[in-house]
TrEMBL record:
Pfam families named among the record's database cross-references: OMP_b-brl_3
InterPro entries, per database record: Beta-barrel_TonB_sf (IPR036942), OMP_b-brl_3 (IPR041700)
Subcellular location: Cell outer membrane
Protein name from the UniProt record: Outer membrane receptor proteins, mostly Fe transport
Record PANTHER family: PLUG DOMAIN-CONTAINING PROTEIN (PTHR40980), TONB-DEPENDENT RECEPTOR-LIKE BETA-BARREL DOMAIN-CONTAINING PROTEIN (PTHR40980:SF4)
Length: 761
């Protein structure tokens, strides 16, 4: 995991609107029924909200990604990732099947898919037992239109964005159908430089540190997919899916100017000390997966058997060189560094997965779904770390520890191998009792067996770490249509969240010599229990009341303590990935999806309140056993949430469109402290000309999408984080659609390794 990504993960771990690439697991639904909607654009149906895109004017000339951003309850704050309001993550399905793509490839796929191909979008805020989603993830299911002719079609898309730096992207998608054979393919590439500016402060009235500077991360990406689907006969299909994504980030730098203030034991202020930390990082990663799918329709009612077998190979190679130099207030640096830390942190993941489902439909509107899955994963992390301390002449200095001379440079190798086996089964019963009343009940049972082994010679607790646990995860939902204008529903779900593989690798990611992040192989899976009540009025207005309780929250906790180096007091700060108590989130949201003035204006609007109740405590580093002053977060907070998306059709021919979007999240308490309010005002204009679409978008017009977090502890310690990701930007794109527009889409196949792939992020 690259340093800049880790830093971002720290700051965004608790945001309601944060678009965390998601590292979250997900799984497939077994059967999502296509319900034909005509005049009702937005509707509550069973366990989901249904947005009838075919009946909405906002689809004209849009991409699938842009259309999803206009969907009620869905938002995007970075134009890269999607989120359901109140959920950690939005998992994308197409025609009822989980997309087997990593985050970057999926974004490009959605941005290269014409919105005119979409029939409807289903938003499932609380998925049933047949979904193996994690924690509080929600699902967005895209239902494509049926196109029945043979032929070839596709589209090309290219664009240019200007934020702090300029970036470019391009992609080509093809769809071919001939008799029983269907082939779809995509290739896309992008190049960008991500710039961030940080101000980090921590300490107390005796000693404090401030680090300020830039993180610059250049990226080159190349990805794509190939799907081949063959109809064996009228009732069965065989499909092969290959997905690939590669990222190269060479020359990623962080340059931080550090200011250290301290007092002696008598309380007298010592001279301010300055130093400068330079970090150079080179990283590249590859993600390849192969999935074989067999589907057999067993009767005319829609019963079917689905079998999937998949193999996933993920590789990341990363090297970093971190140097700290003495400096003065004017940032004049010493000739030689005082300390240098070199790290190599590769990671290789191999996974084999199997998934089987059978859905049986009966004539009395009863559906029984049963299935199981197996995942076997091996993660190999061969970390090499060398620390060298230099004297004033640039030579390695003599070092002593407990009166004994120690090696300089000091090597800290750690070869950590993690094996994990997951077994899961589920059973779901769904019944339509009448035209007004329906319900679903089900449960999952999951068994997780894992073991981590390290060659770390100094910490015996890392040499063999076993984690075995079983989880019973019930689910129930009820839906009642009082009449044509009023609908109520209730759902309860229990889920778990396993840590990502990079979180388990016990490696330090160095920011400065006294400030770093620490991953943790002892992290346990967290459990999430959610209740949700929904009321829908006239298929346009809705109320959602939600309560979730998370036990053993997985997050990063800032532990800090005083240390003495060369007679000067420093504040050492460790962001430690660990389980941090419990958390409750309660929210009430009212919203609207409606068109006005003969569909010249289409608007969706959400406003609500969220209450966070944190209950966390930590004072010990779980890796080293070092004891720190208590870090406590037992604070409650209330925050206001607002989101509105508006599309104005500017002409009768539906060729010119204007969009104005806005979101706001009030101050709230998260695990790291008090998060200052965030908001963003965005606008766009679009022109549709025959098969061409031209779009110009402006993001964060007011420059208000910046992260500021403050935390003050009763023991006097404070922590301050100020992060500017330069979200204000301008994007111009051109899309061209070609070929036979009526070509039938091939089946979109879910991969058996989808749950594992998400945990590589």
């Amino acid at each position: 995991m690259k340093t800049k990504t880790l830093i971002a993960a720290i700051f965004f771990s608790g945001l309601i609107y944060a678009q965390e690439t998601p590292k979250k697991d997900s799984a497939e639904t077994k059967s999502i029924e296509a319900v034909t909607l005509t005049k009702q654009v937005f509707k509550k149906q069973s366990d989901r909200f249904v947005y009838d895109v075919a009946a909405s004017p906002v689809a004209k000339g849009n991409t699938a990604f842009s259309l999803l951003k206009q969907t009620p309850l869905v938002s995007s704050t970075d134009d890269k990732t999607l989120k359901i309001i109140g959920k950690n993550n939005a998992v994308i399905y197409i025609n009822g099947r989980k997309t087997n793509m990593d985050a970057e490839s999926l974004t490009q796929f959605l941005k290269n898919t014409p919105a005119e191909n979409i029939q409807k979008i289903e938003v499932i805020t609380l998925p049933g037992s047949e979904y193996q989603v994690e924690s509080s993830d929600g699902i967005i299911n895209i239902v494509l239109k049926k196109k029945m002719t043979d032929g070839l079609n596709g589209n090309m898309r290219m664009g240019n964005s200007q934020n702090y730096y300029n970036s470019t992207y391009a992609g080509v998608s093809l769809n071919y159908r001939k008799d029983k054979l269907g082939i779809s393919a995509n290739i896309n590439t992008s190049e960008n430089i991500q710039e961030q500016y940080y101000i980090l402060r921590n300490g107390n009235d005796k000693a404090s540190n401030q680090s300020e500077g830039r993180v610059t991360d250049p990226n080159k990406n190349l990805g794509g997919y190939l799907n081949i689907d063959y109809q064996l006969n009228d009732n069965s299909n065989l499909a092969l899916t290959w997905n690939s994504w590669a990222n190269r980030s060479y020359g990623s730098t962080s340059n931080l100017f550090n200011t250290i203030n301290s007092k002696n034991d008598a309380g007298v202020a010592l001279p301010t000390k300055y130093n400068y930390t330079k970090n150079l990082e080179n990283a590249r990663s590859y993600n390849n997966s192969l999935n074989l799918n067999y589907e057999w329709k067993t009767d005319t009612l829609g019963s079917k058997l689905n079998l999937n077998a998949a193999y996933l190979n993920y590789k990341r190679f990363q090297n970093a060189d971190n140097k700290t130099f003495d400096s003065d207030i004017f940032q004049n640096l010493s000739q030689y560094p005082t300390i240098e830390i070199k790290q190599s942190t590769p990671q290789v993941i191999n996974n084999f997965s199997f998934l089987g489902d059978y859905i049986k439909k009966f004539k009395n509107d009863l559906t029984v779904s049963v299935g199981g899955n197996f995942n076997k994963t091996k993660t190999d992390n061969d970390t090499q770390s060398t620390t060298t301390v230099f004297d004033a002449s640039g030579n390695p200095a003599e070092l002593f520890e407990n009166g004994l001379r120690i090696d300089n440079p000091k090597e800290n190798p750690n070869h950590f191998i993690y094996d994990e086996n997951i077994y899961g089964v589920y059973l779901t019963l769904e019944k339509k009792f009448s035209d007004k009343f329906s319900g679903k009940i089900g449960s999952r049972y999951e068994i997780t067996n894992s073991v981590g082994k390290s060659d770390n010679t100094k910490n015996e607790s890392l040499r063999n770490i076993e984690r075995n646990y079983n989880n019973f995860l019930p689910y129930v939902s009820l839906n009642y249509a009082i009449n044509d204008n009023n609908n109520i529903s209730y759902a309860f779900s229990s889920r778990m969240r396993r840590p990502s593989f990079w979180e388990l690798n016990p490696v330090k990611n160095i920011l400065t010599d006294v400030n770093y992040t620490q991953n943790n192989p002892f992290v346990k899976a967290s459990s999430v229990y959610t209740n949700e009540f929904t009321y829908m009025l006239k298929n346009s207005y809705f109320l959602i009341i939600n309560h979730s309780f998370t036990k053993n929250v997985i997050t990063q906790v800032p532990l800090q303590r005083e240390i003495v180096k060369d007679g000067i007091n420093y504040k050492e700060l460790r962001y430690i990935r660990t389980n941090f108590g419990d958390k409750q989130e309660m929210s009430a949201m009212i919203g609207m999806q409606k068109s006005f003035f003969k569909q010249y204006l289409t608007s969706n609007f959400n406003i609500g309140m969220q209450r966070n109740v944190n209950n966390g405590f930590l004072n010990t580093d779980p890796i080293t056993g070092d004891v720190f002053p208590d870090y406590v977060n037992k604070i409650k907070s209330n925050s206001l949430l607002i989101q509105t998306n508006n599309t104005v059709r500017l002409d009768k021919n539906k060729t010119w469109f204007l969009g104005v979007n806005y979101w706001y999240v009030d101050n709230q308490q998260i695990e790291l402290g008090r998060l200052k309010s965030l908001m963003s005002l965005d606008a766009n204009i679009k022109k549709v000309w025959n098969d061409w679409t031209f779009a110009l978008e402006i993001y964060d017009i007011l420059k208000t999408n910046k992260v500021v977090i403050t935390d003050y502890q009763d023991n006097g310690n404070f922590n301050y984080i100020n992060q500017n990701q330069y979200n204000q930007g301008l994007n111009f794109s051109i899309t061209y659609n070609f070929g036979n527009k009526k070509v039938q889409k091939i089946r979109d196949i879910s991969s058996a390794d989808k749950d594992i792939k998400n945990r590589t992020r």
